[in-house]
Amino acid sequence: MNDIFITLIFVWTVIFLGLLAIGGFFMFRKFLKRMPKEDGRSELDWQDYYIHKALPLWHDDSKSLLNELVTPVPELFRDVAKERIAGRISKIALDEGAEKIQLDHIMRGYIIATPKRDHGFMKKKLTQLGIDYTPYNEYFKYADDEKNKFSIFDHSELIAKEIQK
Could you state, in order of their start, the residue ranges of all structural domains in the chain? Predict the structure, then answer.
């Protein structure tokens, strides 16, 4: 009886510490994104800025497409993914002086804001929706990956430099 009780306490301790470590990892990542950069704003501050500035450019069709594109993301993380992608799409549209968010803006922002490890799911979803992503293949190299951690809002300058070449 004593051995069973000690075993249960040990198992509960391991599970509790594991869950605590997982939660701490995600909280720490969010904390790092809230840290101000050289310009005094964090990644999330810039994301919110672009979304709010471009809000009049978003119409029902572009909002519904964005909602459909993030459906493969688990529901727990879907809002975060949608905000990240919407921030990138908004920046692209604002940089180009667009009057409305178009499919072209959505595709480029969606590809760049989606981490490379999720591109398989993204391509599958685009194929299901009947959207041809081959004209946007060049943008896949600008997507965020685990090796090159940089702001998704720095891509405009990288793309402009490569287009000029």
Answer: 1-34, 42-164
Q: How far is CA 131 from the centre of its chain?
A: 20
| Interatomic CA distance for residues 136 and 150, integer angstroms | 21
What tokens does 79 get? 């809002």
The stretches of 35-118 forming alpha helices (DSSP H) are 43-53, 60-69, 75-95, 103-113
Distance between CA atoms of residues 80 and 128, nearest Å: 23
Residues contacting 51, CB < 8 A, separation 6+? 83, 86, 87, 90
Q: Confidence band (pLDDT; 50, 70, 90) for 23?
A: confident
According to the model, what pLDDT value does residue 124 have?
92
- Cβ(88)–Cβ(153) under 8 Å? yes
pTM of the full structure: 0.74
| pLDDT, position 36 | 81
